[in-house]
């Protein structure tokens, strides 16, 4: 037998507004606008042919008939919610994966790729903290710590996932303005340094067999990501880690004037505390890092 019923949306709006005594509060509970609640109530009133609310000051008060109507349909909504919870598929509780990574690595490599991981695994929430502190100095426990290596730390398992080398990089505009044909041409340029990595340029210049080269100027930054941004903005020439500037090279934001020499560098590694069991989510994230690292 066909049931003659009003719109479920109209009934939901009426039940929430009547129970809460406010169209505004009902709108917040139902995640709709206050105007949408008012419209649904008007539709129900038109369907019933009766007024349901009286407006007093800034509140709404049920009419006598509406109060009796609400007393009957209110429990039905509760029964409906309970039945849905009983027979519906339980929603998975998102698993939060905590990651601590070096700041420059997070900014220039991890974050640009993280959307791909989230798209493939929307049920995993990722919390990323950045720190350049040594592994043993971290106070908070993390599921995954990303640092250089390979190093051995008591109580941690380690796996490398991304190798890199270092060599000079600069902006295309700077290269066009002052071409770099050989490493000797660097004497006309500003060299960009990072205070925490003071040996990068001296070691590379030594490997290039020009250890005594004196550049036109020197600019020093306290963070490596600022040094790389300075190169992108044409301030000077930086020592670029191949893994962290690969996207900039591909997009044409940076160029690599010399094919070599290439300065060896430490790999990026995952460190997993052995007292924090590596569950399937941790294994999944580490496998994804290794897969992305192989593409670099």
UniProtKB/TrEMBL annotation:
Protein name: Transcriptional regulator
PROSITE patterns in alphabetical order: HTH_LYSR
Organism this protein belongs to: Caballeronia grimmiae
Highest taxon in the source lineage: Bacteria
Tagged with keyword Electron transport: no
InterPro entries: LysR-type_TF_proteobact-type, LysR_HTH_N, LysR_subst-bd, WH-like_DNA-bd_sf, WH_DNA-bd_sf
Protein family (similarity comment): Belongs to the LysR transcriptional regulatory family.
UniProt cross-references to Pfam families, sorted A to Z: HTH_1, LysR_substrate
SUPFAM superfamilies reported in the protein's UniProt record: Periplasmic binding protein-like II, Winged helix' DNA-binding domain
One GO biological process term: DNA-templated transcription
Domain named HTH lysR-type: residues: 6-63
UniProt keywords, alphabetically: DNA-binding, Transcription, Transcription regulation
GO molecular function, one term: DNA-binding transcription factor activity
């Amino acid at each position: 037998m066909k049931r003659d019923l009003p719109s479920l949306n109209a009934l939901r709006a009426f039940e929430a507004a009547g129970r809460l005594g406010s169209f505004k509060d009902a709108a917040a509970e139902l995640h709709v606008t206050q105007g949408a609640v008012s419209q649904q109530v008007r539709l129900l009133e038109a369907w019933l042919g009766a007024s349901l609310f009286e407006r007093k000051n800034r509140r709404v008060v049920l009419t006598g008939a509406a109060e009796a109507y609400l007393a009957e349909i209110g429990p039905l909504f509760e029964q409906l919610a309970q039945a849905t919870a009983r027979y519906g598929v339980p929603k998975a509780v998102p698993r939060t994966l905590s990651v601590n990574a070096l700041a420059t690595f997070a900014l220039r490599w991890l974050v640009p790729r993280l959307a791909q991981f989230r798209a493939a695994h929307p049920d995993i929430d990722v919390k990323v903290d950045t720190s350049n502190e040594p592994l043993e100095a971290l106070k908070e426990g993390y599921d995954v710590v990303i640092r250089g290596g390979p190093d051995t730390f008591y109580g941690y398992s380690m796996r490398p996932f991304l190798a890199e080398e270092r060599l000079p990089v600069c902006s295309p505009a700077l290269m066009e303005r002052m071409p770099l044909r050989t490493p000797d041409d660097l004497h006309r340029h500003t060299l960009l340094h990072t205070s925490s990595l003071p040996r990068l340029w001296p070691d590379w210049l030594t490997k290039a067999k020009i250890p005594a080269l004196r550049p036109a100027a020197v600019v020093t930054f306290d963070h490596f990501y600022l040094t790389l941004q300075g190169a992108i903005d044409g301030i000077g020439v930086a020592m670029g880690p191949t893994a962290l500037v690969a996207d900039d090279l591909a997009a044409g934001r940076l160029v690599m004037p010399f094919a070599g020499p290439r300065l060896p560098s430490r790999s990026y590694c995952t460190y997993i505390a052995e007292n924090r069991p590596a569950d399937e989510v941790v294994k999944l994230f580490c496998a994804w890092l290794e897969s992305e690292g192989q593409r670099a």
